[in-house]
């Protein structure tokens, strides 16, 4: 069975909007951390079995998905803000459309939630420019600049992405892609004025970039040439990495899968979304706890090999999103009710390794 691929940025936007529609209590009314954290002592036997002994990358998650989502209680939301995101590492992704619930000053409601209420993480902002929003226009470009500059000035994020899976936009809106590039280049200069230490990037869907993702039922040609359009106006590049869009088993993923990136850029690299399912998919992809662990082991070894700077494992908890045949429903290291999966102990063990 083949599945239609939906733009994952759209899924994250749905979750972000849902979070901001919930009643989030003030910080002084949030729940206490019960003591569990990614900093807890990692299993020494697992550490010994890891394929790496140091890591090049920081770690984190993305998506406002507390336990029991979409029927989360107030305590569930509190716990995500207080300690739940930090269970995955020190980086947290806020993926949002440029004008999504921004106030008159351009400050995003989702950014306020992450930067001002979420504990133990350093959020970054990634702006989605979806082909589903229609052609890129000067009005959209001006809004991107306005909101990007406003949030960069207020929050001084370490990272800011001026696109999410932007090559998906290119594949469907090629006539206006160069206009988007023009505004990215202008935004870069203006962001650097108000937040010179923020590292600005754009983002590509890796499997599509390679001309793969055949299990979506769609055929693509590789389009690495897009990287050259941003020369001099990005500090790094980022990718969403979902090999299960092309490969039915972890064993089929080439051992040099990520190495192709270094054929096209020497800039720092960030993986802003990745994961492997713990249940089989209708497309024929084999999913289990062990498959997830096996993918994680292959991922970290390859990431170290090309000096990936950050790995974001998507979603704090599983949830029934009901999108694209459920291919994103079982990617997290935590079940919907908050129960850790077997892979989480490996994620903890990786986080305990020293950074290069």
Provide structural commentary.
The longest helix has 18 residues, at 138-155. This protein has a single domain, classed as Glycosidases (TIM Barrel, Alpha-Beta Barrel), CATH 3.20.20.80. It has helices at 8-21, 44-49, 74-84, 109-117, 138-155, 166-172, 177-194, 206-209, 289-305, 342-351; strands spanning 58-62, 91-96, 122-127, 159-161, 199-205, 236-241, 269-274, 308-314. The chain has an eight-stranded parallel barrel, surrounded by five helices. The chain is 32% helix and 13% strand.
Question: What's the helical proportion of residues?
Answer: 25-40%
Oligomer: single chain
CATH class bucket: Alpha Beta
The span between the termini is 43 Å
Q: Specify Rg, calculated over alpha carbons.
A: 19 Å
Please work out how many helical segments DSSP would assign: 10
Q: Tags for this entry?
A:
single chain, 13% strand, 356 residues, eight-stranded parallel barrel, alpha/beta, 8 strands, TIM Barrel
Can you summarize this structure?
This protein is an alpha/beta fold.
What is the strand and helix layout of this fold?
Layout (H helix, E strand, L loop, with lengths): L7 H14 L22 H6 L8 E5 L11 H11 L6 E6 L12 H9 L4 E6 L10 H18 L3 E3 L4 H7 L4 H18 L4 E7 H4 L26 E6 L27 E6 L14 H17 L2 E7 L27 H10 L5
Parallel strand pairs: 1-2, 1-8, 2-3, 3-4, 4-5, 5-6, 6-7, 7-8
Helix pairs in contact: 5-7, 9-10
């Amino acid at each position: 069975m083949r599945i239609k691929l939906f733009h994952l940025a759209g899924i994250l936007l749905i979750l972000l909007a849902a979070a901001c529609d919930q009643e989030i209590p003030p910080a002084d009314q949030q729940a206490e951390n019960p003591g569990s954290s990614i900093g807890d002592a990692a299993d020494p036997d697992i550490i010994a079995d890891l394929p790496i002994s140091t890591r090049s990358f920081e770690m984190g998650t993305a998506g406002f998905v507390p336990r029991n989502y979409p029927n989360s209680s107030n305590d569930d939301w509190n716990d995500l803000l207080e300690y739940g995101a930090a269970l995955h590492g020190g980086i947290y992704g806020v993926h949002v459309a440029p004008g999504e619930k921004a106030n008159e000053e351009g400050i995003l409601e989702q950014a306020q939630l992450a930067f001002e209420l979420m504990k133990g993480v350093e959020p970054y902002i990634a702006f989605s420019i979806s082909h589903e929003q229609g052609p890129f226009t000067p009005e959209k470009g001006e809004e991107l600049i306005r909101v990007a500059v406003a949030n960069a000035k207020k929050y001084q994020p370490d990272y800011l992405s001026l696109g999410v899976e932007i090559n998906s936009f290119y594949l469907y809106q090629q006539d206006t892609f160069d206009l988007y590039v023009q505004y990215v280049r202008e935004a870069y200069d203006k962001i650097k004025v108000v937040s010179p230490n923020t590292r600005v990037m754009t983002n590509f869907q890796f499997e599509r970039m390679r001309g793969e993702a055949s299990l979506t039922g769609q055929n693509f040609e590789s389009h690495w040439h897009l990287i050259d359009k941003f020369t001099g106006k990005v500090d790094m590049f980022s990718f969403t990495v979902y090999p299960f869009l092309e490969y039915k088993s972890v064993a089929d993923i080439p051992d040099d899968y990520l190495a192709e990136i270094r054929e096209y850029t020497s800039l720092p690299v960030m993986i802003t979304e990745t994961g492997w399912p713990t249940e089989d998919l209708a497309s024929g992809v084999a999913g289990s706890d062990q498959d997830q662990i096996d993918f994680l082991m292959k991922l970290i070894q390859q990431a170290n090999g090309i000096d990936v700077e950050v790995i974001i494992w998507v979603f704090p908890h599983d949830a029934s999103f009901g999108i694209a045949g459920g291919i994103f429903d079982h990617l997290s290291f935590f079940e919907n009710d908050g129960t850790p999966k077997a892979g989480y102990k490996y994620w903890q063990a990786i986080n305990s390794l020293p950074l290069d």
